[in-house]
Amino acid sequence: MPKEKKSDTEVLFPETEMYGIKIRPWTYDQFISILPEVSKVAAQLKENNIRMEDLEKIKDGEEEKILDFFARLLPLLPAVDIVSKTIEVDKEEVKKWEFDKTSSIFLMIIIKNASRIKNSFGLGLTAMKSMRKTG
Hints:
This protein has 135 residues and is mainly alpha-helical. The chain has one domain. 68% of the residues lie in helices and 4% in strands. The longest helix has 36 residues, at 99-134. The relative contact order is 0.14.
């Protein structure tokens, strides 16, 4: 059977649907609006010796590792803010959702954007070092 051809939009913005909500990788505007929360998360991750690379190394079928990773990570994260801004739903509504719904959607958002989060900090540090050298 021939492989289904995806549109350019589907390739550039792959999405997952959970609880009837489409979850896509962040747009530029979403990432900029979430950046303050992501920066706080980065500091907390470093302080608690939790690396995003650990998440990327988890393979299919290793759900217990995913659960362990997020059991350490979730208390540090502003999940409601990130979910609200990513799926464009009012923060107060997200706060009323069941824990499973919020955490599942949050985890999928992080998984879909893990490389962006990781890369943004590398780029930011490089830019800051570059500014120091020229300033």
